[in-house]
Amino acid sequence: DIVMTQSPDSLAVSLGERATINCKSSQSVLYRSNNKNYLGWYQQKTGQPPKLLIYWASTRESGVPDRFSGSGSGTDFTLTISSLQAEDVAVYYCQQYYTTPVTFGGGTKVEIK
Amino acid sequence: EVQLVESGGGLVQPGGSLRLSCVASGFTFSTYWMTWVRQAPGKGLEWVASIKQDGSEIYYVDSVKGRFTISRDNAENSMSLQMNSLRAEDTALYYCARSFPRIGWLSQYWGQGTLVTVSS
User: In angstroms, rounded to a whole number, what is the distance separating the alpha carbons of residues A27 and A30?
Assistant: First the structure.
């Protein structure tokens, strides 16, 4: 199974500042034939289901603010919130969809400092 | 508008059975992979099972193989999860999710979930 490891477990960032979340996979999720990374990011606010933010490691889902960006390739990925807003308080998960079992990272809780 | 509504959760004793249902609307159900994902109280997300558009491919996480069965009825726009031999560790909020177009194992839309509690 591909193990997804997120860091940090939690972080507190001031409003308007940058938040960076890391995700590392135990094996590459880059599919060579199409040069795509099978990596997504979700946001889950308290009491709500997850919301898809990013797919193919760096493509924003429709309607997602451009302060959210994804980067990385192979085994190392990053979700960046360029200017944290109050509504961004949530837990963020990475997920690989390269192979089954589909696996998620353990989550990173983002709070306001 | 895509809507996914789960039902069937509840309190069940260890070793018991439960059948979850997910009714979909707002999209052409038969053209998307569907997935169950669960979340234990206060914990992270765990993928449980996925089923292809025509039911010809099905995948499970190891911990539920042989105990859970995913199925779908495209005529009724619904998906089910039959859960047998339930254990305390199956206690979770179970989400129904629809795939992203042409990306079967990436979940784009999620229901609100149905809570399963396994306890004596």
Answer: 9
Please name the residues in contact with A84: beta carbons below 8 A apart, sequence gap of 6 or more. A13, A14, A15, A16, A17, A18, A19, A110, A112
- In angstroms, the first-to-last Cα distance of chain B is 40
- Rounded Cα distance, A110 and A26, in Å: 24
Q: Which tokens hold the place of A43? A: 């946001």
How far, in Å, CA of A90 to CA of B66, rounded? 35
Q: What is residue A27's predicted lDDT score, i.e. its pLDDT?
A: 98
Of B46, B61, B106, the CB nearest to A55: B106
Bridge partners, A22 (sequence order): A7, A78
Could you tell me if B45 lies within 8 Å of chain A, comparing CB atoms?
yes
Summarize chain B as % helix, strand, coil (round to 5): 10, 55, 40
Residues of A (32-51) whose Cβ lies below 8 Å from B: 38, 40, 42, 44, 49-51
Distance from CA of A111 to the nearest CA of B (A): 16
Q: For the segment B12-53, what is each residue's pLDDT rounded down to a tens digit?
A: 999 999 999 999 999 999 999 999 999 999 999 999 999 999
Among chain A residues, CA nearest to B108: A52
Query: Count of CB atoms within 10 A of residue A16's CB?
Result: 9
* Other Cβ atoms within 10 Å of A10 Cβ, number: 10
Q: Which of residues 57-76 of B touch A (CB under 8 A)?
A: 59-62
